What does this fold into?
Amino acid sequence: MCIRDRFQPHLDGMALSHVDGGYEGDTYYPEWDEDEWEVAKETAYDRFTLREWVRRAR
It folds into this structure.
């Protein structure tokens, strides 16, 4: 189990970039329950979008 998997249940926020287009390389992010999260902020840049997620109240 990688460190990311160990800490995922304890996170309150995540910043994930969504890159436009298709590229070779590692594009993997572990599965997560999107119902537990909501987008707090979304910023569009040239060729990618940054989404800042916050965990919903439990």
